[in-house]
Amino acid sequence: MTIPIDDADRRLLRYLQAEPSLSTADLAERAGLTAATCWRRLEKLRAKGVLRGIRAVIDWRALGYSVEVSLRFSLDKTDPRAFDEFIAAARLVPEVREIQSFLGRVDVRLNILARDMAHYQELYRTRILTLPHIADIEALMHVADIKRAEALPL
């Protein structure tokens, strides 16, 4: 279901994506609205589920994490509980920062952060290989971010 938005909403979202810490007054000024109108529009966007929240983006490298690995899993499809049990167990691994499901040969992708290769190897052996219903794993070591856009082209 697509939620219709107008040009004023697009301006608000564009400025908010670019600088999430803007006050409502500053956001309103940049978008060419009054503060009250800006506040009402933001509340409407929240109520409709367009604006789901504002979050902090933390540079995990600055906190000592230097290894990022994407693991692609094919699961044992002979067990009807395989997917749910795998996901439930993967959620319990703190270093798993993203879980995605797919249609096709790959069923699930986990994005994992580790402090270094020794930490990753320990995680892989003790936490990843013990996840249930794994039929196959493919590891992709992250080398560089070429483009990582979180903002939508509004």
What value does the Rg take, in angstroms?
Answer: 21 Å
Name the overall outline. Answer: elongated
Roughly how many Å apart are the termini? 18 Å
Strands in their spatial order, largest beta sheet: 2-3-1-4
- State the order of secondary-structure elements, H for helix, E for strand: HHHEHEEHE
- What portion of residues belong to β-strands? 15-25%
Parts with pLDDT < 50 across at least 5 consecutive residues:
none
In DSSP terms (H or I, runs of 4 or more residues), the helix count works out at: 5
Structural class: alpha+beta
Mean pLDDT: 94
Helix content: 25-40%
Profile the largest sheet: 4 strands, antiparallel
E-strand count: 4
SSE layout and pairings?
Blueprint: H1 7-18, H2 24-31, H3 35-47, E1 67-75, H4 82-91, E2 96-101, E3 108-114, H5 117-128, E4 134-141
Describe what this molecule looks like in 3D:
By secondary structure, the protein is an alpha+beta fold. 36% of the residues lie in helices and 19% in strands. It is built from 5 helices and 4 strands. A 4-stranded antiparallel β-sheet has the order 2-3-1-4. Helix 1 crosses helix 2 and helix 2 crosses helix 3. The protein is elongated, with a radius of gyration of 21 Å. The mean pLDDT is 94.
Give the tags.
alpha+beta, four-stranded antiparallel sheet, 154 residues, 5 helices, 19% strand, elongated
Give a brief description.
The protein is an alpha+beta fold.
